[in-house]
């Protein structure tokens, strides 16, 4: 942001913070409440006037910040904050304190929302998260399209494979028919041979030679058919009819070859009549082989009918249209998105390159030609786009983690300063009330009002802790930090509750010290992590992504927590027996037990996280 813009916006935010803190009247002090309410109304009017001027100043130099202020002014208008502030003042003038308090409670909530909106401390975080969300959406669509394109390619591979299989079946069937015709011719010649005479013996011997050659060719066919049978068996789950043992094509051809061999021996021994039986058996087995090949061909044709080219082309066109739509969406988003900063969307060019290849593949399928190469090329383009998006997302998530770390460190540092101020106020108020005569319940209105302001401050810190917890939940890579921040939120809630009950004593102050200790611990761990990242050090977690806070830092946090518990336990153990047995002593014992249980639970969480990571590494 421009220096002038920063100065003016900071002034507006500071003014709004003052207006918000002044806007809630305290019970029991009507004159003071009226004065503060009028002050809040006046300051809020000044704020909106300055916002109007600031918006104009920033329109050219910082359009995003100008837009942010415009949103804030719209919020003021939509929520009717000015009329509601005037209405609250009128209720106070009428001494309708309960009604005024109800109105001012709602006003304070809306002023707080406006404060957060204008402050927009996490603007960079928001933009990063929006960019991650944008690219993640494209990445998911690319992954789906790559998967679909792979399926389209497999369809083409299957068609091509079935066509090749069918052609192989046809070629082997023709071989079998040729062998069958030759065997039938041989049988006819054998039947015409006489049983006597030298001429018959010579003819039988010649037929034996031809029968032997036919047996060799049929044996080679059987061996070739064995591979075809194995392929057909593999297709049984895809629609081919199952075969019984000995009922495949190679078995029939092998049986025919054996019968031919026996016929050759009979002919060689000049026993043509005996060879006829073997020749008939060979003919029968070749016919069975041909029938089996025809059944295999029919099964392949049925499979082809399930994958007609027009349907394949239609499916490919649908994938191509979806890819083209994604390409246009990436182009449009690139122009509209602030997160893109004018840079091309990762993977966009590869998605665009896939479209003409998909279109060409659909055209080939329309011509009843498999298009697996074009489809493979398109699939590779989409997979390359997915890799580019994955790389960009990994970089953005790394940047997001850096922003989250800085945001958390800044948030916790500001919270610690505010808590220290509240702790000091609580100590001062407790000393003051000790000097007030009368029962603790009869506090002066001014003192009660100040205690309630402390309660409000603790509640505001509780909200800050809850917001920090959301950042950690969105990251999801740490085991110890989220429950620690949950504890911080709960401790702040407990302190605020006690303050609302007008408590300022030892229990409240001990709770505030716990909050400070926990904030110091979190800040220290975050600063060490930031320093390690700036030095180029980073750990790893599931999937290879670096955790927000490394395990070593989480272990150090646990060690510090345990050391503190040990130190407090030793200090408590050194007290007198009467002190230990007192109500305060028993309360201290409960606090120590709770702290020890917290460390134990955190250690268990970290152990579970490490166990899951080890399982994931072993599974890869």
Task: Explain this structure.
Helices cover 84% and strands 0% of the residues. The chain contains 18 helices and no strands. It has helices at residues 3-22, 30-61, 63-78, 81-93, 97-119, 123-191, 198-234, 249-268, 272-305, 309-336, 348-366, 372-434, 445-475, 481-500, 506-534, 551-573, 577-581, 583-619.
> Could you tell me how far the N terminus lies from the C terminus, measured between alpha carbons in angstroms?
46 Å
Topology as a string of helices (H) and strands (E): HHHHHHHHHHHHHHHHHH
Number of domains: 4
Query: What count of helical segments does DSSP give?
Result: 18
Rounded to an integer in angstroms, the radius of gyration calculated over CA atoms is: 43 Å
* Beta-strand content: under 5%
Low-confidence stretches: 1-11, 19-30, 238-246, 540-544
The overall pLDDT average reads 80
Residues in helices, as a percent range: over 70%
Structural class: mainly alpha
- Biggest sheet descriptor: none
Number of strands: 0
Gross geometry? elongated
């Amino acid at each position: 942001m421009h220096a002038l813009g920063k100065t003016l916006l900071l002034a507006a935010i500071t003014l709004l913070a003052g207006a918000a803190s002044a806007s809630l009247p305290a019970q029991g002090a009507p004159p003071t409440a009226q004065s503060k309410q009028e002050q809040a109304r006046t300051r809020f009017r000044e704020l909106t006037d300055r916002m109007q001027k600031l918006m104009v100043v920033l329109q050219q130099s910082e359009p995003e910040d100008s837009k942010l202020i415009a949103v804030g002014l719209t919020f003021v208008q939509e929520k009717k904050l000015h009329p509601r502030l005037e209405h609250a003042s009128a209720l106070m003038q009428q001494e309708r304190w309960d009604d005024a308090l109800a109105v001012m409670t709602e006003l304070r909530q809306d002023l707080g929302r406006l404060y957060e909106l204008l402050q927009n401390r996490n603007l960079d975080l928001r933009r990063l998260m929006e960019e991650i969300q944008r690219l993640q959406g494209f990445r998911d669509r690319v992954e789906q399209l790559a998967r679909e394109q792979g399926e389209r390619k497999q369809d083409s591979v299957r068609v091509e494979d079935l066509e090749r299989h069918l052609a192989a079946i046809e070629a082997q069937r023709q071989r079998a028919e040729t062998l069958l015709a030759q065997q039938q011719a041989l049988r006819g010649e054998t039947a015409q041979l006489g049983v006597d005479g030298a001429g018959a013996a010579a003819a039988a011997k010649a037929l034996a030679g031809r029968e032997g050659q036919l047996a060799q060719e049929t044996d080679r066919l059987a061996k070739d058919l064995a591979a075809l049978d194995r392929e057909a068996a593999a297709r049984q789950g895809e629609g081919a009819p199952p075969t019984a043992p000995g009922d495949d094509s190679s078995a029939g051809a092998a049986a025919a070859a054996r019968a031919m061999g026996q016929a050759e021996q009979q002919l060689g021994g000049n026993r043509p009549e005996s060879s006829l039986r073997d020749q008939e058996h060979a003919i029968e087995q070749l016919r069975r082989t041909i029938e089996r090949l025809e059944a295999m061909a029919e099964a392949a044709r049925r499979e082809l009918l399930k994958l007609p080219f027009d349907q394949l082309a239609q499916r490919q066109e649908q994938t191509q249209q979806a890819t083209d739509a994604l390409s246009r969406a990436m182009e449009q988003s690139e122009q509209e998105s602030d997160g893109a900063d004018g840079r091309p969307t990762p993977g966009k060019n590869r998605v665009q390159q896939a479209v003409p290849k998909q279109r060409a593949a659909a055209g080939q399928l329309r011509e009843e030609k498999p298009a697996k190469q074009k489809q493979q090329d398109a699939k590779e383009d989409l997979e390359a786009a997915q890799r580019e998006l994955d790389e960009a997302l990994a970089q953005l998530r790394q940047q997001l983690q850096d922003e989250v770390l800085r945001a958390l460190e800044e948030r916790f540092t500001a919270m610690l300063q505010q808590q220290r101020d509240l702790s000091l106020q609580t100590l001062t108020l407790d000393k003051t009330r000790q000097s007030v005569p009368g029962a603790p319940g009869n506090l002066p209105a001014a003192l009660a009002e100040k205690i309630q302001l402390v309660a409000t401050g603790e509640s505001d810190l509780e909200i800050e802790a809850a917001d920090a917890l959301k950042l950690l939940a969105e990251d999801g890579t740490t085991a110890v930090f989220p429950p620690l921040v949950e504890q911080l939120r709960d401790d702040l809630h407990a302190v605020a509750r006690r303050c609302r009950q007008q408590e300022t004593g030892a229990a409240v102050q001990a709770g505030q010290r716990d909050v400070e200790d926990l904030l110091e611990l979190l800040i220290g761990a975050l600063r060490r992590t930031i320093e390690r990242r700036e030095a180029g050090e980073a750990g790893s977690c599931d999937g290879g992504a670096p955790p927000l806070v490394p395990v070593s830092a989480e272990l150090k946090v646990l060690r510090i927590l345990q050391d503190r518990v040990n130190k407090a336990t030793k200090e408590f153990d050194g007290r007198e027996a009467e002190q230990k047995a007192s109500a305060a002593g028993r309360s201290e014992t409960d606090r120590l037990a709770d702290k020890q249980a917290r460390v134990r639970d955190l250690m268990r969480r970290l152990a579970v996280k490490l166990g899951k990571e080890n399982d994931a590494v072993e599974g890869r």
